[in-house]
Amino acid sequence: MDMSAARSGKNADRFDWDEVRFVLAIARAGTMSAAGGVLEVDQTTVSRRLKTLERRLGTQLFERDRGRMRPTGPGVRVIEHGERIEREMAALCHVVDDADTRVRGVTRITAVDTLITHYLARLVAPARAAFPTLSIELVAGNHNLDLARREADIALRLARPASGDLVIRRLGELGLGVYGAAGRSPSAWPFEAGCDWLAYDRDMMGLPEMVWLAERIDPARIVFRSNGIDALARAAADGLGLTVLPHIAAQAHDGLVRLPVAVPSRDVWMVVARGQRELPRVRSLADWLAARFAADAVWLRGGAAG
Known about the structure:
alpha/beta, Arc Repressor Mutant, subunit A, D-Maltodextrin-Binding Protein, domain 2, 3 domains, 7-stranded mixed sheet, two-stranded antiparallel ribbon, 11 helices, disordered N terminus, LysR_subst-bd, LysR_HTH_N, transcription regulation, DNA binding, transcription
């Protein structure tokens, strides 16, 4: 039997991993007293813990050099392993904290305002019924929050991300249509009639529905712009002109009628940072949302609500 391996195993059995903190503190602070200040213990305790570890390992880890504690060769190796252990412990605490937030923490979902206002907000109550110990935050906005930096846990996007260490799932389609004020015959509003139109603001004209619209109308006929879907819907209901709206937003406004015009739908994508996907609070809510999107697929595309 390899006696060095046996001796190493024996040392490992008696090794107190908490003493690694003292080795790292001495290496970083440079003196016993400074390390004690960092660890909130006295210098004597630091010295005793170091000597205990050195005795167990059978080697000297530090030597004094002009009042400073300098690691020996074995000390450098212990510090390297200690820093690795420190990182692993931090990661372990991170996982435990995240698992604990399933019970008393927050899961944040970000999406465009239309999805938040006209769909996700109505899911909060049933989601809380399904997960009564989970707090939910909805963050609306057209800009993408950084999932890697945990600005959000789950993102619902209308364009598939092209980069990033992400887990991406297609949830379904968001249907769109052309809408105008009720009380007028849709047949009186063909594209050729030169009707007034309402559109997104110029920064959003690259979105697929606006590209589709720009190919069919004279831009001079756009009399009103807004980055708010509900503002466009209200203006259309007031008779200002025609506009392209998600069906779920149009259905929330009285006074609108849907024209018999086929508008390409938008895909809805669920995006989660890969490192977050297996956290129970994220995985459970993500799977629940996917099931709800599947159940509401017809309504989201513009059919009757299920």
